[in-house]
Amino acid sequence: MVLGACATWSLITGTLHDGRPEGVLLAVLAVAAGYATGRICGALLPVAAPCAGALAGLGLTLAVPGLVPGPQFAAPLGHAGATAAVLTLSAGAACCAARAASAPALRFALGALAVAVAVAAAVLGSAVGLACCGAVLLVSAAAGRVRRRGAAVAGLAAAAAGVAGLAWAVAARVLPAGLAVAAEGRLTRHRIELWRDALRLAHRNTGLGVGPGRFVEFSPVAAQSLQPDGKPHSALLQQAAEQGLTGVLLLAAAYGWLLHALWRTARPTPVALTAGAVLTAVAAIAAVGNALSFTAVTVGVGLLAGTATARPLAEEPGPSVAEPVSRRGRPAP
Q1: What are the C-alpha distances in Å from 130 to residues 87, 115, 123?
Q2: Under a CB-based contact definition with an 8 Å cutoff, are residues 233 and 286 in contact?
Q3: Interior angle at CA 137, CA 131 and CA 141, nearest 5
Q4: For an engineered disulfide with 268, which of 66, 117, 258, 318 has Cβ 3.0 to 4.6 Å away?
Q5: Where are the alpha helices (DSSP H) in 1-79?
Q6: Could you read off the pLDDT of 261-313 as tens digits, one per residue?
Q7: Could you tell me the pTM of the whole model?
């Protein structure tokens, strides 16, 4: 229902403003297809499926330099955010596979694969990717000691909301002078000016936005760019500018739906929390970058969420949310 609402609203705003909703529709289709595939593969191969996804993501980053949005075939992997997102998804998939494995040797090998992905991020010069992979590894290592899954999921949601709020604060010029200068140094002035154009458009068109794909037509900064891609490089601000407040709420609902699915999944808590950490990291990258414009990222998000919420045909070790435990440690009646 959430994904259907996202697609429907993009069609409505596109029709009313003569916009181009094809990009949104492709992203929705990619997430839905990836999620369905992940559910099937995760049920049949709960360890092999995420392992294959991790290897595919790493190989895609290293061997397919032409993966960029639009008709570009000679450029490298586009934004640093897209590279960081694919590497984060790969590391998270390897960690999920390690958490689902029962043999100690296999767990060690899959953990080593996750570390190798982080090393690849460092070699490629992706500081954001290295930081996100490191955060995922830490969460995966600590997830086995978490007893209250709901509180941990709520913390992940708060972290994503904090990054989104920081992006809005930078665009709205409400940060203190020192923090604003530091943010401009990290994000570049050009990106911040794009954000401010998007925020101005959102204030003027709160209800319906200017229409999907029409940001470049109303943004002076985007129009004057040497290589304009028509995007403000922030999923949150792009939704606000092109699809209004409703588009922002639907984007937040899609992320919330994924976290809710992980909270309710019958998979072990370490698998669920590791996947939640990965999705939160990708959401943070998308809040300050253009990662969701890449089909590889949206498909990867769906695949990871699908495998982490699938119900395997074979029994898995460890407690799950579907199996409440009494105070004495015995299964509740």
Answers
A1: 8, 10, 9
A2: no
A3: 145
A4: 318
A5: 2-17, 22-44, 48-63
A6: 999 998 999 999 999 999 999 999 999 988 898 999 999 999 999 999 998 88
A7: 0.88
